[in-house]
TrEMBL record:
This is Antirepressor protein C-terminal domain-containing protein. It holds the Pfam family ANT. Keywords: Coiled coil. Residues 154-181 form a coiled coil.
């Protein structure tokens, strides 16, 4: 299974509610105002959310969220297959396909039951409100016909395109920020990259090694980049000349992370990774 990145690209944006943006309502038993944006990106038109969105909002590692889902499925396979569905998505940064889960309202509720803290409670309520808001919207859509249905479809398409445009702009800003960091040399070494990502260098070396970015040849202490990552423009090698104690020179090859690679890593490595002490 491919490594689970944490990009900001939503795997299927939920349409916005079809009502005046200034209106609000009380969701089903939640006693919480819900406006037309409340379920945007949280719950899709199939009344499902997904493991990537949950990991992002609850500030969890996506691989850990998927592990918890697998444990729930194993605990009750018959119930699990009804509420957790395996799915994939394509990462906008590197074009690779990765695994995730789609969850029903019951599956979501069971998964987040053990999540604690004030922020966790806030997101629990927001997700449940989003499920209720989307359900109400789908009921209204079911009674529309003719011109009303066409108007609703146009509003939905416009809302989706605007949300996608905002996400693309956010990703573009991320890439530009990383490009500014490395524009002097075109790339930075792994230690510098770790500082930019808020990690300990050893943590980043370990992550890159475990996820198929870098490796060492037998009996060699030099890290090298895997060729596929170099071909994708995520890594590059630079030769440097080192002066030995006896005055002789030695040419060494150093793997470095490009601007594109740094941007991808910022999405792949969760913010809960080991931070600089």
């Amino acid at each position: 299974m491919s490594p689970a990145p944490e990009t900001n690209e939503a795997a299927g944006l939920a349409p916005k509610r079809l009502r005046n943006p200034n209106h609000s309502r009380k969701d089903l038993g939640m006693n919480m105002p819900v406006n037309h944006d409340d379920f945007n990106g949280l719950v899709n038109a199939s009344l499902k959310t997904n493991s990537r969105i949950i990991a992002e909002k609850f500030e969890k590692r996506h691989d850990n969220v998927q592990r918890d889902i697998r444990n729930l499925i194993e605990a009750n396979p018959e119930w699990g297959v009804l509420n957790f569905e395996e799915a994939t998505y394509v990462d906008a940064q590197n074009g690779q396909t990765y695994h995730m889960y789609e969850l029903t309202r019951d599956g979501y509720s069971m998964l987040v039951m053990g999540f604690t803290g004030k922020k966790a409670m806030d997101w629990k309520i927001k997700f449940l409100a989003a499920f209720g808001a989307m359900e109400e919207r789908l009921k209204r859509m079911a009674v529309l016909s003719g011109p009303q249905l066409m108007a609703a479809a146009l509003i939905e398409a416009d809302a989706t395109m605007k949300a996608q445009a905002q996400q693309i702009e956010a990703m573009r800003e991320d890439v530009q920020a990383h490009e500014r960091l490395v524009k002097a040399d075109g790339s930075i070494n792994i230690t510098e990259a770790a500082k930019n990502l808020g990690m300990r260098p050893k943590g980043l070396f370990d992550w890159l090694s475990q996820n198929g970015w870098i490796y060492k040849r037998p009996n060699s202490g030099t890290w090298l980049g895997y060729q596929p990552k170099c071909n994708q423009g995520l890594l590059e090698h630079k030769s440097t000349t080192v002066l030995r104690a006896d005055g002789s020179e030695k040419i060494t090859e150093q793997v470095r992370i490009t601007a594109k690679g740094l941007s991808v890593l910022a999405k792949l490595i969760p913010p809960t990774a080991t931070l600089v002490a």
